[in-house]
Task: structure prediction
Amino acid sequence: MPRYLHTSIFVNDMSESIAFYTQKLGLTLLDGPHHYPGNADMAFVGNDWNAYIELVYDLEEHPPYQLGNRYEHLALEADGELEPYVASLRAKGVKVLKDVYRSPGGTRAIAFVEDPNGIPVELLERRQRPS
Result:
C-alpha cells in the first residue's frame, strides 16, 4: 500500500532554509546537505524518515524561485500548546502570517508562519483522540 513520504521544495538559500526548519521550527536535519555537481544541493529535515521535507537548491542558472500558483502550504504538527510555540517563533524573527486561531470545526488551534522562501507553513496542535 502506498504511503506519504515527503514534500520537496526549491529553496533560494540552503543554509537559511536549514536554519529555519531546524533552529526555529525545531525539526531535525536528517541528512545533508549533499552537493550533486551540476545538478542540485539537497538536504532533508523532519522528525524521522516517515514524513519529511526535502530541501533542494537547484544549481542551474535561473531567477529566484517564486511561489507557484498551484502550491498552497506545508503543514506541521506542533508538540504542546500552539500559542507559546508561535510566540517563541515570533521572538526568533519568524514572520507570522496568521496568528493562532481555532480550526473551523473548533477541534484544534492553527497558525501560519512563512519560511525564508515565502512558503506558508501551517502549524497545528496535535489532534485530540476521540474519547
About this structure: The domain at 72-131 is CATH 3.10.180.10 (2,3-Dihydroxybiphenyl 1,2-Dioxygenase; domain 1). The mean pLDDT is 87. The two ends are 29 Å apart (CA to CA). The CA atoms of residues 6 and 52 lie 5 Å apart.
